[in-house]
Amino acid sequence: MNITRTARMNNQEIRKSLTASRQALAASTRKQYSDQIRQHFMTWFRQFIQTHPQPSCRIAGFWPIKEEPDLIPLLTELDQLGHEISLPCITALDSSLEFYRWTATTPLQPGKFNIPEPQLSEKSLPADIILVPTLGFTRDGHRIGYGKGYYDRTLAKLHEKGHAFIKIGIAWDEGEITVPYLPEPHDIPLDHILTPSGLHTPTK
C-alpha cells in the first residue's frame, strides 16, 4: 500500500514503511509486475528510438536486490537488440558509481555490498538512459533511495560534466509517497518514473 499517513514522517520512517510495503509483495506478484515494467519500457523505448535514431543506445541498468523490480529480462532483450548495456560498480565507498559493460554472458563478481557487478574489464561511456533503483517517489519526480547517496552523487556528477541523459526511476506503484516529503538539497528529480502501471512523467 502507498504511504498515506497525514502525520509528518521523517525520511527514515518513510523508508521503513516503503520497505515493508515492498516486502509484502509476493514473489509471483513481483515477477508479474517486473514483466509489466519490461513491456512498458519497450513500448516507450521503441518510440524513443524512432525520434532519436542511432545505431545503438547506451542504457545503464541495475542488478535487483531487496525485492526490487527484476530488470534482467529487459536488459537481456535490449542487449540482444544490439544496445550497449551497463551495470553500476562501487569502486570507492561514498563516491559516485562507475558503469561497466554487461551482456547476458558477462562474468559477475560480488561488489562492496555483495551486489553482483560486472568484472571490471570494459568501462562504459556515459549512458543515454539511466534506470535508477527507486524505493519511493513523488508525483513531482523526487526519489528516495536507501540513503547511501550513490545515485545522487552519480547523477550530479554527470550533470556537472554537461552530459545529456534521461533518468528513469524504476519502482513499484506501492512506492508512491503521498505524505509531505521534503527532498534533500542534493536530490536530482527524475525525468520519468516507470512502474507496473506505466511510464509516468512527473508534474511540475
How would you describe this structure to a colleague?
The chain is of the alpha/beta class and 204 residues long. The protein has one domain: NagB/RpiA/CoA transferase-like (Rossmann fold, 3-Layer(aba) Sandwich), CATH 3.40.50. The protein contains four helices and eleven strands; from the N terminus they run H-H-E-H-E-E-E-E-E-E-E-H-E-E-E. It has a seven-stranded mixed β-sheet. Strands 4-5 form a two-stranded antiparallel ribbon. The chain is globular and about 45 Å long. The protein starts with 10 loop residues before the first helix and ends with a strand.
Give me the secondary-structure category: alpha/beta
Q: Overall 3D geometry?
A: globular
What portion of residues belong to β-strands? Answer: 15-25%
* CATH level-two architecture: 3-Layer(aba) Sandwich
Order of helices and strands: HHEHEEEEEEEHEEE
Tally the beta strands. Answer: 11
Give the terminus-to-terminus CA distance.
25 Å
Uncertain segments of ≥5 residues (pLDDT<50)? Answer: 1-6
Helix content: 25-40%
Largest sheet: 7 strands, mixed
- How would you state the average pLDDT, rounded? 90
Q: What would the CATH topology be?
A: Rossmann fold
- The main sheet orders its strands as 3-2-1-6-9-10-11
CATH superfamily: NagB/RpiA/CoA transferase-like
Contiguous helical run count: 4
Number of domains: 1
Indicate the radius of gyration in whole angstroms. 16 Å
List keywords for this structure.
204 residues; alpha/beta; Rossmann fold; seven-stranded mixed sheet; two-stranded antiparallel ribbon; 4 helices; globular; disordered N terminus
